[in-house]
Amino acid sequence: MNLVVLVTGANSGIGLALCERLLSQGTRGLQLCLACRNMRRAEAARSVLLTSHPTAQVALLHLDTSSISSVVRAAQEVRLRYDRLDYLYLNAGIMPNPQFDVTAFFKGLFSSKIIPMLATGVGILTQKDGVTSDGLQEVFATNLFGHFLLIRELEPLLCHAGQTSQLIWTSSSNAHRSAFNLEDIQHQRGSQPYSSSKYASDLLSLALNTHYNKQGLYSSVTCPGFVMTSLTYNILPSFPAFVWTLLMPVFWLIRLVTNTFTLTPQNGSEALFWLFKQKPESLDPYAKYHSLTSGLGNNYTQPRKMDIDLETSESLYETLLQLESEVRKNFHGTSESERASQRGGRGISRGMDHLRVNTERFQ
Ligand SMILES: NC(=O)C1=CN([C@@H]2O[C@H](COP(=O)(O)OP(=O)(O)OC[C@H]3O[C@@H](n4cnc5c(N)ncnc54)[C@H](OP(=O)(O)O)[C@@H]3O)[C@@H](O)[C@H]2O)C=CC1
Ligand SMILES: CC(C)=CCC[C@@H](C)[C@H]1CC[C@H]2C3=C(CC[C@]12C)[C@@]1(C)CCC(=O)[C@@H](C)[C@@H]1CC3
User: Could you tell me if 258 and 118 are in contact, meaning their C-beta atoms sit under 8 angstroms apart?
Assistant: First the structure.
């Protein structure tokens, strides 16, 4: 059987490590598609994979999850290339302009909250978000909405009679209910867009299970733990690479008390890879599957209940569908009379300011 696996953000870090592991386990006929925004880096990643697996089928796809037109074009291309999609890893993610609160970090170190702080980064990190050319909040668009649109566009390949497919999100233990607001799903008004987008992916995964399981499509969320990648190096940009290397023994010691310090992309991809081998029907839609590494360096996957509920997940799903239809209307062009009424001042997002899309762009 020719399994088709698509991984977003596959050119580095956890995504690339996952691809390496998928090829190493030797599924015959595996067709891997690396969906990346930077084709030069994508080519480099493909070369690395082909060096260790010269006969592997590794294709590239241009995809910028923060851009609506890129997502629509990429999905069109996937529908042309493949007649099935067995696994869709929703892994691409950003944490732009992170601000590390040193005072809160040191206070946390000497408090009872030290372990949760080190495991989740909650309370010590904020970010400054940007706005995409589509008028969406950048973190929301990249980490969540672009992926949502991709799933919706790939529905015909993902929902096939007599076959199951899996969506696997790279979420985070940094996802926190307090950072998320149904009235501001894009997190325009807060300073934790990363946490909000990851909490939203946890909720969305549950809603996708509610709506798509009967069509054979299953969704799960993972947390790779704390992994040294460009995303985390960027948190302390003043630290040269060698400082991180010097800190490794400290991190190995911390690993003795919190197994969430997976540290390497290979370790971090454990839960993503583990899910590849599971029967999707056996998975818990309320669980986040954590990659963990023991003090002795052994990797394992552990499900932990998420702080999510069906009602909120449904509300988010409805809001995303509304935003999708707004975006589609703009993308495929609105009728002249509609445009005239929008110009008349009511705006396309009547009563839905929180959805905020740059309606001019596609007109
Ligand atoms: N590192 C960690 O400790 C943790 C990471 N995660 C999550 O893991 C995932 C992978 O991150 P990680 O491997 O750490 O970091 P990397 O920065 O190494 O990987 C992120 C990947 O996402 C890609 N990407 C970013 N923006 C876009 C976009 N708009 N369109 C397409 N691709 C994009 C990057 O491409 P490019 O090379 O072009 O930038 C890169 O390939 C993220 O979702 C992150 O939130 C979760 C918990 C912990
Ligand atoms: C300078 C020293 C001694 C330690 C570094 C401390 C922090 C930089 C580090 C501690 C816990 C880390 C962490 C993350 C980022 C880096 C830390 C705050 C994440 C927030 C990265 C992204 C995620 O999604 C989380 C799961 C990580 C949780 C832990």
Answer: yes
